[in-house]
Amino acid sequence: MPLPGLDRRGVLFVLSSPSGAGKSTIARMLLAADKDIDLSVSVTTRPMRPGEVDGRDYHFVDVPTFKDMVGDGELMEWAHVFDHRYGTPRAPVEAMLAAGRDVLFDIDWQGAQQLYQQAGGDVVRVFILPPSVHELERRLLSRGTDDKNVVEGRMARANSEISHWDGYDYVLINDDVESCFAQVCHILIAERLRRSRQTGLIGFVRKLMTPKTA
Ligand code: 5GP
Asked: Nearest 5°: phi and psi at 85?
């Protein structure tokens, strides 16, 4: 880990996958295990699912409100996904970075692309693949939160989402959630150690190299 107390640039850590590949589980595990990263809570126009909490899982808004946010430049990126709009509010991300935190984004490939265009070197993009189409379908059905038509729609979209795998810095196969999670943690640790992100190193090294005066 970088030395505590040394200034560093936060990581904008993007997790994407076709729906059902396990990304949300891994995001939750990461947020619970790592005290230096916070979730960017997206805005969406899709209806709330049972068990979801407004402000925790998403900020649920209507279409006019979403359009106003886009018009006012309040979103860092936004996209249509499954017939609904999703977007990343800018202000909380900037506040988290200013507070020296890393930010986790659970967004699709369109969001990853837009974020990268804006914030380039600060962005680390991780794509999670399911081990097989069969397993993907099984996971989507066992969720039981969407009706069968929605699941079929998502299966149909999985192919197109998977086709964007090469727009990512890291690609993981989630065969086993614990080992996939461990890989995600290793990536984050290594990315935090990049010299370019350890902005406090210059001062630290300067002090190390200052000759002792007698
Ligand atoms: P769900 O409706 O299952 O929560 O999410 C559907 C998809 O929308 C997921 O792939 C999720 O990563 C993506 N998504 C969620 N929030 C955002 C966002 O703010 N921007 C973009 N581009 N995609 C998002």
From this structure: -100, 140
Residue 7 structure tokens? 């200034």
- What is the CA(108)–ligand 1 centre distance, in A? 5
Pocket flag, ligand 1, residue 111 (CB < 6 Å) = yes
Task: Give the CA diameter of the chain.
Answer: 79
Q: Ligand 1 within 6 A of 161 CB? A: no
Atom 14 in ligand 1: which residue has the minimum CA distance?
A: 107
User: For 113-166, what is each residue's pLDDT tens digit?
Assistant: 999 999 988 999 999 999 998 888 888 777 666 677 777 877 888 888 999 999
- Is pTM beyond 0.90? Reply is yes
Q: In what order do the strands lie in the sheet with 37-39?
A: 37-39, 102-106, 12-16, 123-129, 170-173
Mean pLDDT of the chain: 92
Atom of ligand 1 nearest to the CA of 111: 22
3-state secondary structure of 214: coil
Q: Output the CATH code of domain 12-39+99-209.
A: 3.40.50.300
Question: Which residue in 157, 102, 165 sits closest to 133, CA to CA?
Answer: 157
Residue 90 scores a pLDDT above 90: yes
